[in-house]
Amino acid sequence: xxxxxxxxxxxxxLTLVYMALFGASVLALFTFIYWSTLGYLERQTQQIIEAExxxxxxxxxxxxxxxLADVITERVRRDTERRSIYLxxxxxxRPIAGNVxxxxxxxxxxxxxxxxxxxxxxxxxxxxxxxxxxxxxGFRLLVGRDVRELEQxxxxxxxxxxxxxxxxxxxxxxxxLLIGFSAQRRLAQINRTTRQIIAGNLSQRVxxxxxxxxxxxxxxxxxxxxxxxxxxxxxLRHVGDSVAHDLRSPLTRLRTRLETLANxxxxxxxxxxxxxxxxxxxxxxxxxxxxxARIESGAYRSAFAPxxxxxxxxxxxxxxxxxxxxxxxxxxxxxxxxxxxIGDRExxxxxxxxxxxxxVKYTPDGGRIDVEVTAAPRSYVLSVADTGPGIPxxxxxxxxxxxxxxxxxxxxxxxxxxxxxxKAVAEQHDGRLTLGDRKPGLIVELxxxxxxxxxxxxxxxxxxx
Length: 465
Prior knowledge:
The protein has helices spanning 3-7, 10-78, 148-198, 214-246, 248-263, 269-296, 309-326, 345-362, 418-428, 454-464, and strands at 84-89, 95-98, 113-119, 125-134, 140-146, 305-308, 330-334, 340-343, 368-376, 379-386, 432-437, 442-449. The chain is an alpha+beta fold.
């Protein structure tokens, strides 16, 4: 990736912001260290000078100017390190005592701290911090300390601060560039994958490094979304193929019959009713397809709420009781109250209606259908068992697909979408649909997650809205 493109990235801009904040923090830290160390040394120097000033002022009061000159001479003699600076001058600025050859120029601020350069014998200069004091009629006293080491420390600290701040900012910028390159490389992989998918290659997936960071989490979510999109697209293609295959013959027969009726001088009422029935069957098939598509899109999830699965089972069984009695089928329903699940009552009722409709359709006269709601760990199971012909084990998975019917059932009314709709309802409710063998007959189980407590149930329902 080129640098100009990197400079426009949000990550690099955030890096600059954090670099500025970090630089300000380092500068504040250096300032604190500067004033806490060098400030302490300067205050210590001033305290030493002030102590000497007080001592010399006492000598003036007791011994006069001559005694003060003797004391200064003695102190200069005992100062082997030559750190102390003394100079006593008269009104004409002629030196009387001290270790400074002459009074510094333009230095007449009595009672104030001054800094000047003291000339040395080797032609060099020594920085001095001093205090000027008037000690008599026209006499002046200069007392100070050699601050050459303090100035050297100050210079070293300033140089270290500049270099330290520069290195900090440079390393921060380098780290920002490295982080920006790394993040941009991961984003470039995602963009490259999305461009390939836009071009029509739905099999592409975003690479996952396995580091477990936020980029991997984003890649996993994108891959899950792509898996779902590919699944939906495959289902859409399957629906298209199935519609073309399963509805072409009924539409052709309907068109042929309508052409025949159009040419007939006196079409019979039975023929017209047959055409209407065929059209109704086609509309029912299309409506079922649309409903399955809407369920799979998650359009109903916003309306999920606490729902009593037992009550739904009893209501649907009551609806089919008359149809079962008419054919001598024993229909039993064991569904206790309080089987709370989070879902859509209409969808769950539609799923059970499809299961019971199939059971009544395929159970022979005098057979039996058992509907039961049982509690399982953290879930409820709705089962519909009949004594019909059942479904072979190798066909059960295929029977959950759209427009799939057994050869033995093609003579009966239906479009092969009933179990596909039940499967879509189960997946949208985070449930599981299984087909089993009752021996004889078929048992269908729809397992749905249970609502643990009423408070948790209401909270989940509110979140789903």
